[in-house]
Write a structure and sequence with these properties.
37% helix; 6-stranded parallel beta sheet; 14 helices; alpha/beta; 2 domains; globular; single chain; 3-stranded parallel beta sheet; Rossmann fold
């Protein structure tokens, strides 16, 4: 989004389209810098190949491809270095197809679909900075990092209603905990989250809410069942925009390394992020108000989705997280 805003500032009269996968589409639709959003339902279509609704999925896929190719773009920028994004860039019509060239760590073969390959940069630059460095190579410069999240009054009203229904009505501090991540290696222990929530509630007199998707409900219910103080779960009750509105309203967010962590950081609410197998200097919450909690182990970051020891997460104590929290 900072790159998007920079592009809009450089080309105020341009028609700008964002191609996004379905899971993140809610967070993109309605952004003031965009004219159009094209949504890829790739996972649904792949899953639907062998379902009874395969004809419907095929029609949706062909409709998507038609939409993807209905415009001749002057410039297509592939911010990802993924093979799947490269294929879509190849399918779209464009005079210039730009992105990072060969040589970046963890890169797939997206560069083979480009006719304008930008010299690779060090992956240890934060992801936001890598995006800005890419567009700077295309003559689009920015002096500030702005998100301008597309969160509307309706989202904030719904967020307020959810918080009120969770018993949050007064002036007490509110802390949101987002405990789940897609990688097993990024998960902290449920007992630890329960103890952390209890201690935050007692030390700061804080109201605790847990956030997550509908798939996280059972994990969050288990955490709350281990607590001695009260907490509320909003798992499965929010869209991405309502989640952002909730994060705007709380005093602090504690999170594993996952998408909602970045949502919270983009709202400029302080984040305490618990990191294990990944590198916070690459993909941590961006900004000086946020804090990272890590264990001092030699093997981290390893970027592995599977690990027998989980040492990098196991060695993070509740005390260590508490020492990073000030509200």
């Amino acid at each position: 989004m900072p790159a998007l805003n920079a592009i809009r500032n450089r080309y105020p009269g341009a028609m700008i389209t964002w191609l996004v996968e379905e899971a993140a589409a809610d967070f993109v639709v309605g952004h003031q810098a965009l004219d159009r959003v094209i949504i890829s339902k790739r996972k649904k279509w792949i899953k639907g190949i062998f379902s009874q609704a395969y004809l419907k999925n095929l029609r949706e896929l062909f409709s998507f491809l038609k939409e993807l190719r209905d415009t001749q773009y002057d410039l297509i920028i592939n911010f990802q270095t993924l093979f799947k994004s490269g294929i879509l860039a190849a399918l779209a019509k464009g005079k210039r197809k730009a992105g990072y060239g060969r040589g970046m760590e963890h890169m797939e073969y997206s560069y083979i679909f480009l006719n304008e390959r930008i010299r690779p940069v060090n992956m240890n630059n934060h992801a936001i900075l890598r995006s800005l460095m890419l567009i700077e190579s295309l003559g689009i410069k920015t002096k500030e990092i702005k998100y301008n999240l597309p969160v509307f009054s309706t989202d904030r009203i719904k967020a307020g209603e959810l918080l009120q229904a969770s018993g949050i009505r007064g002036s007490e501090p509110v802390i949101a905990i987002n405990p789940v991540a897609k990688w097993k290696t990024k998960l902290w222990y449920n007992d630890n989250f329960a103890e952390l929530a209890d201690r935050l509630s007692i030390k700061y007199g804080a109201k605790i809410i847990f956030t997550g998707s509908k798939d996280d409900i059972s994990v969050i219910e288990d955490i709350i069942s281990r607590m001695h103080t009260k907490a509320a779960s909003l798992a499965g009750k929010t869209t991405l925009k309502i989640l952002a509105a909730i994060f705007e309203m709380v005093d602090l967010v504690v999170s594993t390394d996952t998408g909602p962590m970045h949502v919270a950081a983009a709202t400029e609410t302080p984040v305490v992020a618990i990191f294990g197998p990944t590198a916070p200097w690459r993909t941590g919450p961006f900004g000086s108000i946020h804090k990272i909690v890590r264990a001092d182990v030699e093997c981290s970051p390893c970027f592995k989705r599977k690990c027998s020891s989980m040492e990098c997460m196991r060695k993070i104590s509740v005390n260590q997280v508490m020492e990073s929290i000030f509200i």
